[in-house]
Amino acid sequence: MPTASVVIMSRATALLFISIFIANICLSSAFSSTLPVRTFFRTSTENSIPITVAPSRMVAKEELGEDEDVTERAKREAKLSLLSLAASYDRGYGATPDARKRAKELVDVLKGTTLDNSDDPARGADGAFSPADGSSPPLRGIWRMVWTTAADVLVLNVNPLFSVGAIYQDASDLPVIVNIIDFIPRYQNLLPLNLGLPESRIRAEVQTRGGRRPEVGRVGLSFEAVKVRPLEILGVDAASWPTTAGFDLPKLPGIADPSSGPGYFDILYLDDDMLIISQNEPGGIFVSVRVPYAD
Fold first, then answer.
1. What's the average model confidence in pLDDT over 65-71?
2. Beta partners for 265?
3. Percent of the chain beyond pLDDT 90?
4. Is 221 in contact with 209 (CB distance < 8 Å)?
5. With the CA atoms of 218, 131, 179 and 215 taken in that order, what torsion angle do they form, in degrees rounded to the nearest 10?
6. What DSSP assignment string belongs to the chain?
7. CB–CB of 126/258 below 8 Å?
């Protein structure tokens, strides 16, 4: 009978493959002289991860109306404070114990208050929905991570060769959900910006398939494939290069679909511009904001 440990082993295998592949790419990129180089100067904020949300939804505290519902006010203030923590502590990679504790308190304020308490935020995650009534699955969209406490994601940033760039969850084509992680050679963040070094960026994608579970807000997952490809090599656009590497993940025996497998995540909070989920194994919270595309 498969257990959650099988999911952890699959993730570990995928991350090991990604690390080895990226290490080779970064080393060959750093010493290659055969590629044409596009030189430009980077600004001091170019490698930062901007946090953007819909301006009509996220407003400053002073803009809140005096007659606003107390619960709605608490939600808005909790979201603003959570985004402030995310920006101050590098999405959780540099978080102190006090910052993690404060973030948990803010998540607890938001937990369970979704688009509609009578509605399941996981509705349509399995691809079974009817667009005829004009509705769309609440989860559908592209989400960029701004905060996490997940150890399997935080550990990615300890590699001496590369640092973690943007992290996305692409749920725009449900039931397929693609987890995306961009990696940047660490020397790009260590050397002076005015050197104008050409940039490199590698993208890793883990494709999963979502399914509904009986529990409200729970999305079942089956892991399908891993893919790694360069987006930019020494300043040269490599998105269209035929250099993608990857493999299909083995199917778990006895598991017919994501609704019955050991992998899942729970939607703790979801509105038009923010998503908070908790993964089952190895645990951890993810706070994400809606973005138009995974750039």
1. 63
2. 219, 279
3. 48
4. yes
5. 0
6. ---HHHHHHHHHHHHHHHHHHHHHHHHHHHH--SS-----PPPTTTTS------TTT---GGGS-TTS-HHHHHHHHHHHHHHHHHHHTGGGTT--HHHHHHHHHHHHHHTT--S-TTS-TTTTTTS---GGGS---TT-SEEEEEEE--HHHHGGGG-SSEEEEEEEEEEEETTEEEEEEEEEETHHHHS-GGG-PPP-EEEEEEEEEEEE-SSTTEEEEEEEEEEEEEEEETTEE-TTSS--EEEEPPPPTT--STTSSSEEEEEEEE-SSEEEEEESSS--EEEEEEES---
7. yes
85 close to 100: Cβ distance less than 8 angstroms: no
Spatial contact of 266 and 213, defined as CB atoms under 8 Å apart: no
Residue 145 pLDDT level (bands cut at 50, 70, 90): very high
Give the residue from 109, 112, 219, 107 showing the smallest Cα distance to 174. 219
Q: Residue 179, class by beta-carbon neighbours within 10 Å (0-12 exposed, 13-18 middle, 19+ buried)?
A: buried
Asked whether the beta carbons of 249 and 209 are under 8 A apart, the reply is no
Contact 220, 226 (CB under 8 A): no
For 4-61, how does the pLDDT look when each residue is reduced to its tens digit (9 = 90+)?
A: 443 443 444 444 444 444 444 333 333 233 323 222 222 333 333 343 333 333 444 4
Cα angle: 229, vertex 249, 151; to 5 degrees: 75
Other CB atoms within 10 A of residue 131 CB: 9
Q: What is the pLDDT of residues 15-24, one digit of tens each?
A: 444 444 444 4
**CA quadruple 86, 89, 95, 96: dihedral sign:** negative
